[in-house]
Amino acid sequence: MNAPVVIVGTGLAGYNLAREFRKLDSETPLLLITSDDGRSYSKPMLSTGFGKNKEADGLSMATPEAMAEQLKAQVRTHTRISGIDPGHKQLWIGEEAVPYRDLVLAWGAQTVQVPVEGDAQDAIFPINDLEDYARFRAAAAGKRRVLILGAGLIGCEFANDLIAGGYEVDVVAPCEQVMPTLLHPAAAAAVQAGLESLGARFHLGPVLTRLQRTENGLEAHLSDGSVVPCDVVLSAIGLRPRIDMAAAAGIKVNRGIEVDRQLKTSHANIYALGDCAEVDGLNLLYVMPLMSCARALAQTLAGNTTAVSYGAMPITVKTSVCPLVVSPVPRGCEGVWTVEGQGADIKALCRDADGKLLGYALTGEAVREKLALNKELPALLA
Ligand SMILES: Cc1cc2nc3c(=O)[nH]c(=O)nc-3n(C[C@H](O)[C@H](O)[C@H](O)COP(=O)(O)OP(=O)(O)OC[C@H]3O[C@@H](n4cnc5c(N)ncnc54)[C@H](O)[C@@H]3O)c2cc1C
Hints:
Layout: E1 5-8, H1 12-24, E2 30-33, E3 40-41, H2 56-59, E4 60-62, H3 64-71, E5 74-76, E6 83-85, E7 90-93, E8 96-99, E9 102-105, E10 109-111, E11 124-126, H4 130-140, E12 145-149, H5 153-164, E13 168-173, H6 185-197, E14 201-204, E15 208-214, E16 217-222, E17 227-230, E18 232-235, E19 239-241, H7 244-248, E20 257-259, E21 270-272, E22 277-279, H8 287-301, E23 315-317, E24 324-327, E25 336-342, E26 345-351, E27 357-363, H9 370-374
Parallel strand pairs: 1-2, 1-9, 2-5, 9-21, 11-18, 12-13, 12-18, 13-14, 20-22
Antiparallel strand pairs: 3-4, 6-7, 7-8, 10-19, 15-16, 16-17, 23-24, 24-27, 25-26, 26-27
Helix pairs in contact: 1-8
Bound molecules: flavin-adenine dinucleotide (FAD).
Flavin-adenine dinucleotide binds near residues 34, 127, 128 and 129.
């Protein structure tokens, strides 16, 4: 039998690539391998699940068996790749060698862990997949107070969602504003004020140093000496693209697995997309870029070599109390910010010396202007 196209990972990158590929090629053997349970789900829904009172099962859209049938593919679940041997075009699952015609790495990013003292480290839960979500829901069931580590996009979305789900929320992050790498301070202030109006308490500046069990739950000791009582901790302090196994196989890595515009790594017949990939220097951990990559790579795997391009890719943040759309300024671009509006309705625009729009952050009512502004935005990979 011909060696299959092998996709490692059944997240949005892996399954969408398989779907796009099958539109073009219904015959080539296709094998998907995943270390998780292989259910198809939309990861962005994880940070709206409490408000909608959805269990993990309610967020799952298809079983791996249904996906295998739909994709005319084999889906191997709870199966962890342990190594890649590019010289022999095979990968390793423990002692088992699996040959590939083409190998696609769609194995995502992993959660960052912080060292914390105390006897309650097991009460800290990261959420980066459906199984994490199920574990956190079980831990939070019947509890009242959630401490969120991290005030980035994910931390703020969970703050909004957990409050909508009936929890009290404290947010701890070592930064001066929410979403510091993404947002102009005026927009950040609007989002923070919105979340505070729901009851969220922000502790910006310190980090969690110790988590201790007490008679009434947990005590979170922060580096500024303050103590925050809580019942469970959700960690949203960031994600790191999975690169170690690729690097061990001699594949070039930087922040992510380096690929060119055709999604090719430094090794023949090995490709990458999604959260693990750095595409022409850009490692964007969002859905829109991976969808563009899936369409382009499907063409290449079907024999029609295709380069990916990214248009403007504004991000809609799911802080419903203060709607937010942001289009970060592309790397290497310098501009000047202007801010209009006040309170919850902020329009922050960044323009270059010629007046060309480079990026924006829109909150509240100003979000309505996004369609008009999107037309002015530069493409991220033209
Ligand atoms: C809570 C949350 C909310 C988000 N909301 C938004 C949003 O609103 N909009 C947006 O654009 N983006 C959002 N994102 C980001 C977006 O969801 C991700 O960019 C995207 O889902 C990444 O998909 P992926 O397939 O690359 O990775 P993943 O979904 O992480 O999939 C990785 C796959 O690889 C498998 N795997 C890993 N290692 C191995 C191994 N060694 N062997 C075998 N299999 C392995 C895993 O089991 C998994 O199947 C959100 C992210 C989170 C966490």
